[in-house]
Each structure stands twice: as C-alpha cells, then as structure tokens.
Amino acid sequence: MAETTQPATVLSITDVTPQVRQLIVLPKHQRILFQPGQWVSLELPVGPRPPLNRAYSFATPGTASGELTLVFDRVVGGMGSSYLYQLRPGDEIQLSGPYGSFTIPQQLDGELLCIARFTGLVPIRCMLKALYAQRQTGSVLLIAVAPAEDELLFHHELLTLAVTRPGFRYLPLVAAGGEQQAVDLTLSILEPLVKSTPKAIPMLCGTKGFVRPLRAYFVQVGYDRKEVKTETYD
Ligand SMILES: Cc1cc2nc3c(=O)[nH]c(=O)nc-3n(C[C@H](O)[C@H](O)[C@H](O)COP(=O)(O)OP(=O)(O)OC[C@H]3O[C@@H](n4cnc5c(N)ncnc54)[C@H](O)[C@@H]3O)c2cc1C
Q1: Is the domain covering 112-232 a CATH 3.40.50.80 domain?
Q2: Quick one: which atom of ligand 1 is closest to the CA of 102?
Q3: What ranges do the domains of the chain cover?
Q4: pTM (predicted TM-score)
Q5: pLDDT, tens only, 58-72
C-alpha cells in the first residue's frame, strides 16, 4: 500500500563530517513509525520532471516527538543531495514512508557482521542504536569504510560503543581510491575472518559497486544468497 505523502519541517541542520550533513525533520501531519533500517522517500522539487524521488534511511530510532534524523553525503553533481544541502531550518520537504526490509533479523543466531561504505552506515547505525538501547549483548562486528579519515561517520560514537559494549567490535577503514579499493580492502580483512569463524549474519549497505562483490564473496564461501542481507543506494 502506498504511504501518504506529507510535508515535514526542517528543524535543524548539522554538518557531521566535511561531506556529510544531518537534517532533523518533523512530519507535519502524521507520525511515522518505522523499524531501524527502513527509509523515507523524499519528493524533491528539482530535476527535469519534478518531483525527484530520493530515498534516505533513518539514522536514529524513532522518538516520542516523531522527529526523524536523516544523514546524507554531498554527491558531486547529484541533484537530490545538492537540493538537500541548500535547505535551511524552517523549510519544508515532502516525504512518505516508512519503506524497506533491511532490518534487524528476528533471530540473531550468530554474529551480526555489518559492512558499510560511507553513508551506507546510516541504516546500520540506526539498528545498532536500537539494539544497544535494548541492552543487546550478542556479538556484532562492524566494518565501516570511509573515503577519507575525516569522513569516518559516527566515528567517536562507534569507538565509545566498542569500549563500553563487550560484544561490539568496530573496524574503521579508509579507502581513498574509490569503490574498487573499498571492496579490495574489505575483502582482505574479511577473508581470514570468515574462514576462521562460524557462519555470521552479514548485512551489507552502500552503492552496488561495493555491495555486490561482497555479497558474491559470501555466496562463494558457502552462504545462501538469502542469508546475506543487503541495501543498495543506486
Ligand atoms: C533504500 C535507500 C536508502 C538510502 N539511504 C541513504 C542515506 O541514508 N544517506 C545517503 O546519503 N544516501 C542514501 N541513499 C542514496 C540517495 O537516495 C541518493 O541516491 C543519493 O543522495 C544521490 O542522489 P543525487 O540525486 O544527489 O545523485 P544522483 O545523480 O542520483 O546519483 C549519482 C550517483 O551517485 C551514486 N550514489 C548514490 N547514493 C550515493 C551516496 N549516498 N553517496 C555517494 N554516491 C551515491 C550512484 O552511483 C549514482 O549513480 C539511499 C538510497 C536508497 C535506495
């Protein structure tokens, strides 16, 4: 069923890294109830045939006030992200949702192996926040690949989690050479890990050029395609 489109007011704007911005928005008519990992569709008044639809994942779990947190990077020449970058507090955007099935599996029988490139971390961060708010004690390994050291998203928050939550391991990586380098670097870390540990629950997020080779790797080493949860941004 199609979700209702409604206006939402931009409440605040924060730059979280040099190339990544956070918007907190408040839907005007109806609270959006969602599961961590899901996303909203924005209808942006730009492009040759407006509206331009762009999806953005929830960056934090739902709040009682109904505010939504969106986190996105500035894509060079990207119409949607450029439009979002010029918004100011008080502006309105049209959105609908929630959508999506990239959510925490019902049964966590194995280590959650989350792998994200750049803003692919957004839905995974939301899931981790929800898990740790519920005092989850299972094992989680997060591999987060950024295009530069100062673009490591939620870095201090994740370092703090790694220190305070015994089951949580955080492996930040920097691959300045683009998608293929990010894949190669991730695989070089993954291969010895996957060979020496029992089956994990892989959750991969980012652009297709990053996610697909990693999913292919998991399938090649014996995972069923359905055992590898993915969200692709393009
Ligand atoms: C389910 C879903 C959830 C998403 N959640 C987020 C999110 O939480 N944060 C976020 O930043 N983006 C997210 N995206 C991507 C977002 O919808 C846009 O595609 C992105 O902002 C680029 O749009 P654009 O119009 O600026 O550029 P476009 O002209 O549409 O894109 C140009 C190229 O950029 C690549 N691209 C797509 N997404 C990104 C990205 N995020 N960073 C760098 N390159 C990209 C694609 O290869 C695309 O061909 C999500 C996409 C989907 C499908």
Answers
A1: yes
A2: 1
A3: 6-99, 112-232
A4: 0.98
A5: 999 999 999 999 999
Contact 98 CB / ligand 1 (< 6 Å): no
Residues 191, 195: Cα–Cα separation, whole Å: 6
CA of 1 to the centre of ligand 1 (A): 24
**Closest residue (by CA) to atom 34 of ligand 1?**
75
Tell me the CA–centroid distance for residue 85 and ligand 1, in Å.
Answer: 13
Q: How far is residue 175's CA from residue 148's CA, in Å, rounded to a whole number?
A: 7
Cβ 11 vs Cβ 91: under 8 Å = no
Query: What class has domain 6-99?
Result: mainly beta
Which protein residue's CA is at the shortest distance from atom 7 of ligand 1?
56
Residue 96: other Cβ atoms inside 10 A: 19
Burial of residue 75 (number of CB atoms within 10 Å: 0-12, 13-18, 19+): middle
